[in-house]
Design a protein that fits this description.
Blueprint (H helix, E strand, L loop, with lengths): L1 E6 L3 H14 L10 E3 L4 E3 L7 E7 L2 E9 L8 H7 L2 H6 L5 E9 L6 H17 L4 E7 L3 H7 L2 E2 L4 E2 L5 E8 L3 H6 L17 H7 L16 H16 L11 H8 L3 E5 L4 E4 L6 E7 L1 E8 L2 E9 L3 E4 L8 E5 L3 E5 L4 H6 L3 H24 L8 E5 L1
Parallel strand pairs: 1-19, 6-7
Antiparallel strand pairs: 1-4, 2-3, 4-5, 5-6, 7-10, 8-10, 9-10, 11-18, 12-17, 13-16, 13-18, 14-15, 14-17
Helix pairs in contact: 4-8
Length: about 375
């Protein structure tokens, strides 16, 4: 499988990106400043013509994109400048030193960490090359910890959009090498002490934005784990995932769990689930676990499991035992292979509901394997900028 990053340079490339946006944005969440072409299935706005648009392709399919408005090719959107007093930025920084990034979309079926890291890092390299010193973006509240780890800092109060979705404005000072090191940002790998502006840009912004954050406490995950959590959080916002206990009340959940075998795993330890003739179902009752392999920059996770997540392992699709590593102290409840038989005699209705949930989970996993959505470790990466 090949993942490649491109800069959209032709009308056809841009149209392909607009069509990908249409697929990614829920129509009910459409923004008043976007043009929605339902007939052609496109989403774009007046700033696209002069914007820098990057997109990622997996073989022949677009799977990710991000847009950069660099304030020299096109002014920053007026509604943003007015609403958040971004005119202060223009007083503080020269036009070519300021940018705004938006329209960041990842295909939620691509839950692996590599896609997210490639799209974000490629945008960072473009901005560095253009001598941009500060980049503004709006961040979903659930993504804030991940953006802080990248080096972004909140600059103003939150913005509540349609459907109770809240975003906050954050800024990245690209050459603040000391800050990027302090928060262990993976973007710091692209810089050195020679690039360090010693916090000069941040100090300029602080004179206008009293809410500009100072460094926060950062969870010290290795880079591979950070990008996996970044991608996992993003996909959970973008798409719902079926669970084993969907639409089950507490009493029904407890009835099911009383048949399960519970394993307690300390952070850093692993649990091995041996191959069998049957598929394995379970639920994460506490903590955070990963399914993956070691890589150059730590772990390369194929899947992240959080508290409440359903676990399904299709043993027919595996050639080795399944190994889950605890990223923090965790508990996992593994359901017995004959659970449905045991449960049927006491609660046939609950048995039927649980059986349907299991089928939904299996279908999701089978689809992922058939479409090769889970990124494998032998992927090839190309960047064409």
């Amino acid at each position: 499988m090949t993942i490649a990053i491109f800069k959209a340079q032709t009308p056809q490339e841009r149209e392909d990106v607009y069509r990908f946006r249409y697929l990614m944005i829920a129509i009910g969440d459409e923004h008043e400043h976007l043009t929605i072409d339902h007939k052609q299935r496109l989403i774009y706005d007046e700033h696209d013509a002069d914007a820098i648009i990057l997109y990622a392709k997996r073989d022949t399919k677009i799977v990710g994109t991000i847009r950069i408005l660099d304030n020299t090719r096109t002014p920053l959107p007026k509604h943003l400048i007015d609403q958040f007093n971004f005119s202060d930025f223009e007083k503080t920084l020269k036009p070519h030193e300021l940018s705004f990034t938006d329209h960041f979309f990842l295909d939620p079926t691509m839950r692996g960490q590599t896609l997210a890291s490639l799209v974000v890092s490629s945008a960072f390299h473009i901005m560095l090359h253009k001598k941009i010193k500060a980049s503004i973006t709006f961040v979903h509240t659930r993504m804030i910890p991940h953006y802080r780890r990248l080096g972004y800092r909140q600059i103003d109060k939150s913005l509540r959009l349609k459907h109770e979705i809240t975003y906050v404005p954050m800024v990245l000072c690209l050459n603040d090498y000391s800050h990027l090191l302090q928060v262990m940002s993976p973007l710091a790998l692209s810089l050195s002490e020679e690039n360090d502006d010693q916090g000069e840009t941040a100090q300029k912004l602080l004179s206008h934005y009293k809410l500009l954050e100072t460094a926060r406490t950062i969870t010290p995950h290795d880079i591979g784990t950070f990008w996996a959590l970044f991608a996992d959080t993003y996909t959970r916002i973008a798409a719902l995932r079926p669970g084993l206990f969907d639409e089950r009340n507490t009493s029904e959940t407890q009835i099911i769990l009383q048949y399960a075998e519970t394993f307690h795993i300390n952070a850093g330890d692993k649990i091995v689930l041996p191959k069998s003739l049957s598929n394995i179902f379970g639920v994460i009752t506490k903590g955070l676990l990963g399914d993956g392999v070691r890589s150059t920059y730590g772990h390369h996770w194929f899947e992240i499991y959080r508290e409440g997540d359903a676990l399904v392992i299709l043993n027919q699709a595996k050639v080795t035992n399944a190994e889950l590593i605890a990223l923090e102290d965790s508990e996992i409840a593994i359901l017995p292979e004959n659970l449905l038989t045991q449960l049927k005699s006491t609660d046939p209705i609950l048995t039927a509901r649980l059986s349907m949930s299991m089928l939904d989970l299996m279908q999701q996993r089978i689809t992922e394997f058939e479409e090769d959505c889970i990124i494998l470790e032998d992927e090839r990466v190309f960047i064409h900028l």
